[in-house]
Amino acid sequence: MKIAWNSSQTTRSTKLATASPSGGGHVSEQALGELGTLDARLPANPEDADALVARAKILRDLRQFTLALADANAALAINDKSAAAHFEAAQDLDGLDRQKEALSHARIATELDPQNSNMWFFRGVLERQRADFAAAVASQTRSIKINESLVALTEREQCQRRMGKTAEADADLRRIQQLAPRK
After folding, report:
1. Distance CA 5, CA 3 (A)
2. Distance in angstroms (rounded) separating the CA atoms of residues 28 and 135
3. pLDDT, tens digit, for every residue of 109-166?
4. pTM to 2 decimals?
5. Where are the extended beta strands (E) located within the chain?
6. Which 3 state secondary structure label does DSSP give 24?
7. Who has greater pLDDT, 11 or 138?
8. Which contacts of 101-106 are long-range, i.e. CB under 8 A and separated by 24 or more positions?
9. How far apart are CA 2 and CA 60, in angstroms?
10. What would the pLDDT profile of 46-98 be if each residue is shown by its tens digit?
11. What is the spatial distance between Cα 52 and Cα 56, in angstroms, rounded to a whole number?
12. Burial of 6 by CB count in 10 Å (0-12 exposed, 13-18 middle, 19+ buried)?
């Protein structure tokens, strides 16, 4: 199950690729332009790990997980201490339903950039998918401490319920209700 973990990511994905009625995808001019810019940048500097990660993100948004993973791996070959490259590899592997490998990269990403709430959130999602609810709660707690979000609170609340920690889950639910926009 894929999770849209942040609204700007979801918006960006929608802009880059829109679904057609036939189930195929239409690549936006914006995505093509961004890919073209990065493709022009890379021959001038083939060791540009940031450009490879940026291109991988676009390819992932276009659901081209194999191509995205190839770029993330190329970035890691250049700089194996890049939290962004490990995070991108984790997301690409998740898209390919290779959650065990994805979790390995997510762990490295959070070790390299322990103040990134999105990385902790995604790590928690992967841990939940593997039914490691205690680890998922710990990761979501780290994410929330860095940057409280409704999506992380909701993930943690659900994991706590799965573990039978209803008091903690109810506390998260109350906080979610406080933060949720009024309709």
Report:
1. 6
2. 38
3. 999 999 999 999 999 999 999 999 999 999 999 999 999 999 999 999 999 999 999 9
4. 0.81
5. 17-19, 25-27
6. coil
7. 138
8. 102/126, 103/127, 103/130
9. 12
10. 888 999 999 999 999 999 999 999 999 999 999 999 999 999 999 999 999 99
11. 6
12. middle
SS3 26: strand
What domains sit in the chain, N to C, each tagged with a CATH number? 10-16+27-113 (1.25.40.10), 114-183 (1.25.40.10)
Selection from 141, 66, 139, 60 nearest residue 103 by Cα: 139
Question: Which long-range contacts does 149-152 make (Cβ < 8 Å, 24+ apart)?
Answer: 149/6, 149/117, 149/121, 150/176, 150/179, 150/180, 151/3, 151/5, 151/6, 151/121, 152/117, 152/120, 152/121, 152/124
Q: Can you tell me the distance from the alpha carbon of 10 to that of 4, in angstroms, rounded to the nearest whole number? A: 6
What are the backbone dihedrals phi and psi of residue 27, each rounded to the nearest 5 degrees, phi first?
A: -85, 130
